[in-house]
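Morning, I've got a small favour to ask if you have a moment. I owe you a coffee for this, so here goes:

…
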Amino acid sequence: MDMTKTSVNVDTKPAKTKKKKGKSLEKNKARMGWFFVLPFVLGFFFVYFPMIVQSLQFSFSDMERAAGGGGYQLTWNSFKNYNYALFEDTEYLKILISSLKQLVFDIPAIVIFSLFLAIMLNQKMRGRAVFRAIFFLPVIVSTGIIESIDLQNTLASAMGEATTTTGAGGSGASGANIIQAIDVQKFFASMKIGTQLVSYVTGLVNDVYNIINRSGVQMLVFLSGLQSISPAIYESCYMEGASAWETFWKITFPMISPMILVNAIYTIIDSFTTESNEVMKYIINFNDGRYTAGVQAAAMSWIYFVIVIVIIAAVAGVISAYVFYQRRD
């Protein structure tokens, strides 16, 4: 009996899956982020960006009064204003270098102090919210018009002069005299530590008021980072017998390293833009209304801006190499 063979064609191609309609949660969050920053973006391009372009134009030009008596007239002069700021002005470069040196000492002190405060205030204790408010209060007090009033406060100036002068009998003592009283030099003598470190510690103690005032925002950033660490990680470390020192360097410090980068950049920007910055005050006071002084001050501002950007890029590049980012997937 002949049997007919039947062939069956089986389609081995995978069935086409329908694409999911709608937007993913990540895309929705990204679009909402742009929605919240949209006012700043519009304000920057329509308000600040034209002024930035105009300031850059001023820095490369000579400014003279217009022939008709109204307005001003610009004449291209290449790098003449920049040459004046760097090589002819005797004070600008000195103040700029001094400000950069001070920044090298201030940034580590502020970041380390704010991290120390955040760790202490993250512990379970009574009145924790009150202590957090107390340490953040200087940030509120030293902003806006309050900072201007504080800079012109005659009472604060009188107290500062009183602490730096020694009256009859030696009752008045400055921060440096207090440090000398406890004799830091002798304390570090047996450790064979150089005088530069001693001077650095002395300067930090004398500047403790300023450091506390500028550590509030950084403290809150570190607190948010510490509270985002899962308690289960610490529980597993304690069960494995890890000490508090090991837990800090192996768990806490790596997981808040992104916050260290953020706080370092924020501290640099805050230090360079505060009203008490000597370079800022010099540029503002240098521009006294004269046409020539205006364009020269614009050149000084752009030199200052470029230096700040370079420092931020360098600090971000160095710290980013050691930042630990936890994977969420």
The longest helix spans residues 25-59.
